[in-house]
Amino acid sequence: MKAISVTEPVVETRSVTGSIICRTSASIMVPFILLWGLYVLIHGALGPGGGFQAGVILAAGFILHTAAFGLKETKKILPVKLVMVMASTGPLIYVGMGILAIIFGGNFLEYGALPLGHSPAEASKYGIEIVEVGIGLTVMAIMVSIFYDIALRKKVE
């Protein structure tokens, strides 16, 4: 019977293509992709978009960065520990907003009870935006975490 040995994670230290064209294109496109993700996040309550869509767009920007510059460079910008903190911050924001609504006399996630604006409608608008930011952070972090797990897979012989 052959023994299975698990080696150290296989980590690609250079870019996937090594192409100057790919790196240059990505260095131009990644900031715009991240900016677009923030736009979708902020304007999600007013039109198409929101936390989930923005999180996926933001994660795609970091995945493109990895494809162009390599995993080692991307992990300098977005280390695994930061990804895990971001993944857990989203649910904390969600639950925190719900508990704050209860503290201020409303029901769980009744944003109109929060003292965020001049009227309950304005408070609701701000409360929804805050929760959408939490959702966006969590989705982005989970998508990047899944990508890191795939990229850092352990080789089984």
How many individual β-strands? Answer: 2
Q: Mean pLDDT, nearest integer?
A: 86
Helix content: 55-70%
Radius of gyration over alpha carbons? 20 Å
User: Can you write the helix and strand succession as a string?
Assistant: EHHHHHE
Number of domains: 1
Q: How many H/I helices?
A: 5
Overall 3D geometry? elongated
Question: What does this 3D model show about the protein?
Answer:
- Helix 1 (20-42) runs antiparallel to helix 2 and helix 2 (51-69) runs parallel beside helix 5.
- This protein has one domain.
- The chain is mostly helical.
- 30% of the residues are buried.
- It contains five helices and two strands.
- It has helices spanning 20-42, 51-69, 71-77, 80-103, 120-151, and strands at 6-9, 154-156.
- Helix content is 67%, strand content 4%.
